[in-house]
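To whoever is on call:

I kicked off a structure prediction for a single chain this morning and the downstream step that reads the tokens threw a length-mismatch warning. I double-checked the sequence; it's 219 residues and nothing unusual in it as far as I can see. Pasting both halves so you can look.
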Amino acid sequence: MRLPPHSHRLAGLAAGLLALVFVTACATRGSVPGVDRELETLVGFQTGLFTSAPQAARDEDYQVVEFRAARIWPDRNDGHWVYSEQQVEGTPAPYRQRIQRYFRDDDGVIRLRVYTLPEVEHLVGAWRDPGRLDAVPVASLNAEEGCDNLYRMAPDGSFEGSTIEQDCRNNWRGAAYMRSVSRVTAEGFVNWDRGFTAAGEHVWGPTGGGYEFTKLQDL
């Protein structure tokens, strides 16, 4: 399903974020040993109930999309795991269900890695009861290779994220790769996904900016 735009300020974020691959990020860590405050903050910002209704109300090019994300597997020590669903308002089921893992890599960079599930229908609504995911083996998940989002904290306390150049392969509507750019705050997030041919021609995704998701509630 093709989903619409986000804000213009996202267009310039991707280039600057590529430097994260080559330099060691300075983690903002709290006084509690082993607690990564910066990583915890990002995950807190991106979990909860969200809607794009305010954006859709002022721009008919956007649908009302609901995004729900809840933490799962709290006992794992290989990152923060989250289950998420996206659903167009008024439709009978989510069009996207994913497992997300937020972690710092060996270079100190915050990464968001997304995984698909082998079976999803029976998990609809699991954000209300994350324990339903306990029976899902991690080994059954499939990572979306090359599509990690790399994040850094901006001076204003928000987070800016991006995939890396042409690494995220995608063949929908004649594309060769996808670019994803995002900005995350305590109030919500903006996400802009677009597909391009190998020659760099834009073939799918919004042209004017990303989808704007307003946070309604923490989970």
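Update from on-call: the warning came from a stale cache, not from the record. Cleared it. Sanity check on the structure: Confidence is low (pLDDT under 50) at residues 1-9, 11-31.
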